[in-house]
């Protein structure tokens, strides 16, 4: 079984999202010694800019047009990232909430790999998935939690899980579980530790489901 683990926090060993996903993966490896983990840390990985050459390559790839040397170079880098998704049997993602959304490096990765005819199809009417990933788990850590009575309606609060879950289903994840850990950076450290412990316990309960 090949697991693609995506780490989205730049905090390394201090990151709650990384700590939780690493703990989950170690539990999986204890139950299945044949697991191969491909760890993609968006801060350590060289992610090409989605710039003039990259977007030019995107359009030419769809139209089957000849690319310039610079476009071909950008496209080769994008292809190498796409292959890591295509090789995955399972996906594990850990991501903090930044300004009610995703860290920009994670969004950059998505923009690079979400290529038509590689991760999804579009025939002018409907989208279709091209990945064959049976299961995925996403750990969402948040410094606080939504409180009733604030000026922001609850429906507008979350641009993190709503977007990422949609995207994963779009490209071909068939069964997805989200583990949301609120109050990970609360002034009351005891409350934060309780939230993190609950998140870890939830992940432990999902190991059997994830592997089978």
From TrEMBL:
Its cofactor is FMN. The keyword Cell wall biogenesis/degradation does not apply. Residues 1-194 form the Flavodoxin-like fold domain. FMN binds at residues 9, 15-17, 97-100. Keywords: Flavoprotein, FMN, NAD, Oxidoreductase. Its EC number is 1.6.5.-, 1.7.1.17. InterPro entries: Flavodoxin_fold, Flavoprotein-like_sf, FMN-dep_NADH:Q_OxRdtase_AzoR1, NADH:quinone_OxRdtase_FMN_depd. It holds the Pfam family Flavodoxin_2. The keyword NAD applies. Binds 1 FMN per subunit. It catalyses: N,N-dimethyl-1,4-phenylenediamine + anthranilate + 2 NAD(+) = 2-(4-dimethylaminophenyl)diazenylbenzoate + 2 NADH + 2 H(+); 2 a quinone + NADH + H(+) = 2 a 1,4-benzosemiquinone + NAD(+). It is an enzyme of class 1 (oxidoreductase). One of its GO terms (molecular function) is oxidoreductase activity, acting on NAD(P)H as acceptor. Belongs to the azoreductase type 1 family. Homodimer. HAMAP family: Azoreductase_type1 (MF_01216). Quinone reductase that provides resistance to thiol-specific stress caused by electrophilic quinones. This is FMN dependent NADH:quinone oxidoreductase. It comes from Granulicella mallensis.
